[in-house]
Amino acid sequence: MPLKRMYLSGSSAVFDLEVDYKSEENASIIYSALAIDKELQPDKVRRLMSVSNGKLSVRFEATEARFLRASYSAFVDALTLATKTIEQFGKGMEV
């Protein structure tokens, strides 16, 4: 189950997401697939991603909660598709 945490920091909204793929290779593949999609409104939403110990960590920082929600929702759709692709065609991965 992904680790999720949201909080308000001053005038911005922040959301942290961590998904354990239990494999550095699979986490890196997912990272590479998602990193090419840049935020549509970089002045309003910033997304920071990293991979460590088989886990994909993502931090969203937005000027308003509504921008955070829209960005997170679109990202999770892409994340779900990438994860299902790895599960279907990857080397024995189960998340």
Q: Could you describe the 3D structure shown?
A:
The chain has 95 residues and is α+β, with helices and mostly antiparallel strands. It has a single domain (3-89), classed as TATA-Binding Protein, CATH 3.30.310.50. 39% of the residues lie in helices and 34% in strands. It contains two helices and four strands, in the order E-E-H-E-E-H. The chain has helices spanning 24-35, 65-89, and strands spanning 3-9, 12-20, 45-52, 55-62. A four-stranded antiparallel beta sheet has the order 1-2-4-3, covered by helices on one side. The longest helix is centred in the C-terminal third of the chain and has 25 residues, at 65-89. The termini are close together.
In short:
It is built from 2 helices and 4 strands. 39% of the residues lie in helices and 34% in strands.
Helix-strand blueprint:
Layout: E1 3-9, E2 12-20, H1 24-35, E3 45-52, E4 55-62, H2 65-89
Antiparallel strand pairs: 1-2, 2-4, 3-4
Subcellular location: Cytoplasm; Nucleus
Protein name: Putative CTAG/Pcc1 family
Keywords: Cytoplasm, Nucleus, tRNA processing
